[in-house]
């Protein structure tokens, strides 16, 4: 395969993905605006026109920002690949470390990570301190934003750099089958994160306190007993330090499972509604959705690592994407820069699979609590989180991991 063909295939994938994504986003904005003037009949008694219009405006602004991010992302990727940006970074790093060495590879990938973070930073600041603040969701202070950034950087250095070093060493030391070893390390790392996140990493960013409401605690413990779910504790997280959005989730794996409620969620919902929301989350556990996703992710990622192993042996792959010399670190960077533009076509399939899981979790919740309690909880969450009730069906089918509000509630009521 010639370098020119690699270039053409990449540009076709990037251009077509860019056009489809942008077109879907524009559809979403137009559809939400077109239905801004009236609350859907199913929600007319529970959500006022002001709240409906606020959600429409919030949705449109978020999608507009995503459009700008999409354009900047495409330009950035083009600059790094066919524009020669990655080759320039590699040359600069070669002035400090021997070209092709592990130290050179780590420096290259770390520099790319820093540059990517700098590109994303203006969007994070705007989203947090302008968009979210405009709709009264943001509670993040500049000091907390800086603190979070410093902690994330420290974690990246403490965990990411050793992991990168180990991966590059395996790629150099394990011969042609290196990609099997790297895949095993990658899979093991993801499982390790599931184990240590609840007790070691999440507390670096939020405070977790035992659930103090005895009435709610009794309801939740009764639900857990009915569902056969064992956890290491019920916790309330200070989500209100950063946002007014509410949520509940369980996290961890094996013996480290925890149930976590955002304090904002407990402020908005009744005990019956909280119980129903938790029953939905337990539905994911009952149907083994996390395990099923891991079972799909494992062989799919193995196939991708095998593809990467083949591509790293192709000089044309490097030359076609703007890099003059082969190298494991540069190959890794090129692969993960290009991959999202080639796999975008799988997005609606993954979204559909996720929505099916949501329906299964809803049915489970309705069988262990009152369906009407889950409906009323969802209506409050849609209203208070300014989630649009009228998404464009095509956009929703492509991107939304959760079913549209009207469809989801109709099924619960049915």
Task: Describe the overall structure.
With 414 residues, this protein is mainly α. It folds into two domains: 167 residues, no CATH class; 147 residues, Zincin-like (2-Layer Sandwich), CATH 3.30.2010.10. 71% of the residues lie in helices and 4% in strands. It has 16 helices and four strands. It has a four-stranded mixed sheet with strand order 1-2-4-3. Strand 3 and strand 4 form a beta hairpin. The longest helix is centred in the N-terminal third of the chain and has 33 residues. It starts with a helix and ends with a helix.
Question: What does this entry show, briefly?
Answer:
The protein has a four-stranded mixed beta sheet with strand order 1-2-4-3. It has 16 helices and four strands.
Key attributes of the depicted protein:
single chain; 414 residues; mainly alpha; Zincin-like; 2 domains; 4-stranded mixed β-sheet; 16 helices; 4 strands; globular; metalloendopeptidase activity; endoplasmic reticulum; Peptidase_M48_N
What characteristic shape results from the CA principal axes?
globular
Structural class: mainly alpha
Number of domains: 2
Estimated helix fraction = over 70%
- What's the helix count? 16
Strand content: under 5%
Q: Strand arrangement, largest sheet?
A: 1-2-4-3
Family: Belongs to the peptidase M48 family.
Active site: 281, 362 (proton donor)
Protein name: Peptidase M48
Domain Peptidase M48: 211-413
Summarize the helices and strands and which ones pair or pack.
Layout: H1 3-34, H2 49-80, H3 85-94, H4 102-134, H5 142-173, H6 178-201, E1 208-210, H7 214-227, E2 234-237, E3 248-251, E4 258-262, H8 263-268, H9 271-286, H10 289-311, H11 315-320, H12 328-343, H13 347-368, H14 371-384, H15 393-399, H16 405-413
Parallel strand pairs: 2-4
Antiparallel strand pairs: 1-2, 3-4
Helix pairs in contact: 1-2, 1-15, 2-4, 3-4, 4-5, 4-12, 5-6, 6-10, 7-9, 9-13, 9-14, 14-16
């Amino acid at each position: 395969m010639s370098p020119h063909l690699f270039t053409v295939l990449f540009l076709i994938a990037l251009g077509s993905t860019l056009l489809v994504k942008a077109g879907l986003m524009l559809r979403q904005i137009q559809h939400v605006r077109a239905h801004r003037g009236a609350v859907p009949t199913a929600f007319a008694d529970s959500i006022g026109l002001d709240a409906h219009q606020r959600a429409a405006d919030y949705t449109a602004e978020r999608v507009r920002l995503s459009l700008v991010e999409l354009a900047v992302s495409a330009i950035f990727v083009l600059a790094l690949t066919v524009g020669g940006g990655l080759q320039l970074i590699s040359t600069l790093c070669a002035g400090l470390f021997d070209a092709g060495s592990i130290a050179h590879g780590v420096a290259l990938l770390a520099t790319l990570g820093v540059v990517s973070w700098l590109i994303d930073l203006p969007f994070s600041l705007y989203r947090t301190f302008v968009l979210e603040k405009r709709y009264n969701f943001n509670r993040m202070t500049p000091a907390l934003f800086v603190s979070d950034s410093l902690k994330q950087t420290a974690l990246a250095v403490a965990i990411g750099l050793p992991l990168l070093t180990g991966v590059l060493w395996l790629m150099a030391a394990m011969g042609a089958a290196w990609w099997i070893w790297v895949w095993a390390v990658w899979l093991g790392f993801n499982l390790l994160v599931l184990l240590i996140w609840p007790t070691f990493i999440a507390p670096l960013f939020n405070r977790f306190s035992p659930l103090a409401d005895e009435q709610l605690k009794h309801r939740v413990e009764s639900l857990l007993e009915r569902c056969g779910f064992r956890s290491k504790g019920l916790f309330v997280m200070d989500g209100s330090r950063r946002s007014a959005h509410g949520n509940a989730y369980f996290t961890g794996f094996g013996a480290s499972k925890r149930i976590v409620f955002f304090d904002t969620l407990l402020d908005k919902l009744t005990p019956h509604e909280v119980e129903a929301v938790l029953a939905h989350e337990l539905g994911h556990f009952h149907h083994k959705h996390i395990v099923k996703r891991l079972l799909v992710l494992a062989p799919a990622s193995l196939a991708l690592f095998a593809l990467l192993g083949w591509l790293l042996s192709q000089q044309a792959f490097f030359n076609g994407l703007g890099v003059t010399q082969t190298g494991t670190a540069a190959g890794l960077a090129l692969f993960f820069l290009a991959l999202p533009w080639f796999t975008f076509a799988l997005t609606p399939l993954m979204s559909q699979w996720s929505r099916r899981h949501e329906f299964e979790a809803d049915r489970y919740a309705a069988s262990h609590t009152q369906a009407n309690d889950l409906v009323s909880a969802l209506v409050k969450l849609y209203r208070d989180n300014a989630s649009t009730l009228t998404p464009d069906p095509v956009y929703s089918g492509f991107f939304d991991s959760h079913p549209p509000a009207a469809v989801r509630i109709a099924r619960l009521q049915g």
